[in-house]
Fold these 2 entries.
Entry 1:
Amino acid sequence: MSKLISKVAVITGGNSGIGLGIAQEFKNEGAVGAIVGRNQETLASASAQLGDTFIAINADVTNLTDLERVFKETAEKFGKIDVIVANAGGGAIGTVADTTEADYDKAMDLNLKSVYFTVQKALPYMNDGGSIILIGSNAAHRAYSSFSLYGAAKAAVIYLAKGFSGDLLARKIRANVITPGTTDTPAFDKFVPAEQIEAVKKHYAGVMPIGRIGQPSDIGKTAVFLASDDSSFMLGAELLVDGGMTYLA
Ligand code: NDP
């Protein structure tokens, strides 16, 4: 039986990569709702792939007025909201020697502040008993050069799942976090010259304990579990979905 029948979900960054993978798995399980991003072209293409189940909302998750509009529009279209996926994030590469204050603010705005306020602005429209899913990263656990700001923000996101769950106990809204390892998305492609992408992916697959890099559907299926009643006893938890790369590679 479909696990998310009649659930209404909002997925930030649902127009690309992991977010789109989550939206596709949610759709397969009967959910409806909204995907949120800034790029009109990828929003339109994702929306076409999802049929009429998810509306596309053009908004910047670092802008609090935009976030208020996202949840108001979704609630007006579908009624109350059951599931929030704070997925939009990324970028923020640089060593401590060459990072500027502006780089710092940009990294934290996208990877931490936006997550906090996505949840805050969703709350007035969320059903009691709903599910909040945050997307962290295995970079919170493993040292990588040039990833200190990104990893620090993602480590804080892991705490937010616990803190939010504590704040929302009276409403029985559960917050949990998925920490993906290397996953095959357009973000991954951005760091590698086009002609080397296949070779680099092959190399990564070779060093991954499980023998392949992650796919957005791997994260999507985990998000279905956290959105569904199957995980009703889980709050403040982290699910590491990394093919073993964090602790076994
Ligand atoms: P993509 O670049 O494919 O997708 C990122 C998404 O976030 C896009 O849909 C983008 O849409 C959206 N986004 C970015 N900035 C904003 C903004 N200011 N406002 C609204 N939307 C925004 O990346 P991934 O799918 O790889 O990443 C998704 C999440 O997974 C991120 O949080 C990332 O840190 C995390 N992650 C990814 C891993 C990987 O290996 N791919 C590993 C671990 C974690 P638009 O450009 O239209 O705004």
Entry 2:
Amino acid sequence: MAKTTKSTRVSARTATIHDQKLERGEGGELHQTAAGKASVLTTAQGGPVSDDQNSLKVGPRGPTLLEDFHFREKIFHFDHERIPERVVHARGYAAHGFFETYKSLAKYTKADLFQRAGEKTPAFVRFSTVAGSKGSVDLARDVRGFAVKLYTQEGNWDIVGNNIPVFFIQDAIKFPDLIHAVKEEPDCAFPQAQSAHDNFWDFISLTPESMHMVMWVMSDRAIPRSFRFMEGFGVHTFRLVNAKNESTFVKFHWKPKLGLQSVVWNEAVKINGADPDFHRRDLWTAIKIGNFPEWELQLQLFDQDFADAFEFDVLDPTKIIPEEILPPVPVGRLVLDRMPDNFFAETEQVAFMTQNVPPGIDFSNDPLLQGRNFSYLDTQLKRLGSPNFTHIPINAPKCPFAHFQQDGHMAMRNPIGRVNYQPNSFGEGPRESAQRGFTPFPEVVEGEKRRLRAESFADHYSQARQFFISQTAGEQSHIAAALTFELSKVKIPAIRERMVSHLLNIDETLASKVADKLGLQKMPKPADAALPTRQDLDPSPALSIVENGPERFEGRKLGILVTDGSDAGLLKALKAALDKAGATFEIIAPKVTGAKASDGSWIDADQMIDGGPSVLYDAVALLPAADAMEDLLLESSARDFLADAFAHCKFIGYVGAALPLFEKAGIASDDFDEGCISIASAKEAKSFVDSLAKLRVWEREPHVKMP
Ligand code: HDD
């Protein structure tokens, strides 16, 4: 007996090192100390645990005993840690914040959150990609989900939108087909998080209604630089309903305060390798350092007369109302200022549902929206496993609530007392309120019960063309390149040709470019169209990313490459200018510990050159010392750092000593343009930072021939 006790103690000591602990020093650095005081580890039942390193065995070498309830509870719980990932939008990242109303909208809606200027409503927002699994990469070419939960005083309101204002299909009954087609092919189970494969383009090329959305998805909108720099859209037409029961149609738009920005495809591919968590790290870091992302809620408001006169059906989710025709009105701002304490508890378990609307917000008859209103409730039951998913704190309303729903798996709160029904004559429990309760807008509807698509939904190409002609020349070339890339991954030539036949109905030059790049022997006939493409729709500048960029470099990040001997004064000036612009930076050095500056001070590095390629930054500055160049020129990652920054049309600040690196990167002095800026003094460092607001030197693009 004594022998067993002794061996158990010995193995506990050898299995793990208990007496070490990392603590923060005065400068915030972590270093190792002896263990501090910790609370006592318990089982889920609250029982204190004596040994969490060794299962209960007979003798030191087993067998293990079934009576070890702590071991069994621990493993049982681990075995059940996973829940089904979302069938779409599985990969997501969320943050808490608030929505602040600018001024009362009582004229249009009785929704409580819009009644008082300055009213703050708690918010939780989840951004996502659509096609990939939970563990896929952030920079997939894909739509981004933009789901907003507002905890209003009259119940939760979910605006479950995307960063694109239209959708692939007009009727929810097609959603399973669309998603089956875009996800991994079912026999081989690849490609992951990519639309570049036969099944997707087969479905799309057989679904002309998707053409407008295809233009958006092939544009740089599908590879945003950050969640913080993208728009969000409610997509459908909804209704606002006021206290007099009058209805106004509405479309919801979230406009990022810091302007729009995307990356280029070649960059996206490299970011996915260098930092698959690029978007979530960006949001996490921005919020942690107090750069709270902000969007303005803007509404497109219109009445039935406008809807009747507008050239497309406002119930068709493949159409927009151009902002130049119906300017959106700012009504409030959304600020994200806190990360969830735990990813699973909040980001994973949050349940968004289009049917969550407070009194004063109502649906339209958009057939996609009507179908979504069924799907979201259903999917939460599957995913979260119980009708009591509203008991999970992230899903619970923050306003008072009372109902008689009871029991079921994992019930956290049941009605208290005898009465669990109404009406009752005990005078207990909640009752309906005709004044406060949700009442649908009393729209009169009639018609034959049939499976039909409205004639007014039949034009599939005019707005696709309008989107295309609203882009800058560079943006148009990105769309052509994206289509070519995607279709080059399609193995069946007939599918490629079918797609080109649709492009012919959108823009002939675009179709020719894609056909040429794909090596099509002869041009197919244009696809049959129910209606001819309208050539008279004006371009809408609001649809271009480049035209809607930021005014400053604010919220962006400069990558600064240093070596031993880098000019300390220049670095200081650069940092000060960035700080003033509201921008951040990372230091990249040959060694991750950092480098010794010209004045002997130490420069802490954030990244080693291999770990900090220039694709992770919005612009770069090269501050190497002449003495360090011989070694730096041997580093292929230093060469790539510059070559990529140049090819991706980024601004490059440099000191004279860095010039040999340009040569090594294949950039001749003749290639230098307005984006290659010498920074020899503090003054020049400041003007370099001022020029960064433009973000990219697109004029360079035709010369670097990016794909
Ligand atoms: Fe959906 C999730 C956005 C059409 C069925 N959808 C989901 C999410 C977003 C959207 C942002 C993720 C929410 C989160 O972060 O948890 N979906 C859209 C938009 C659509 C759209 C903007 C078109 C305008 N969706 C759509 C249709 C259906 C669904 C037509 C089904 C008929 N969507 C779902 C779903 C999901 C979902 C299966 C998966 C996980 C979830 O709901 O909670 O119910």
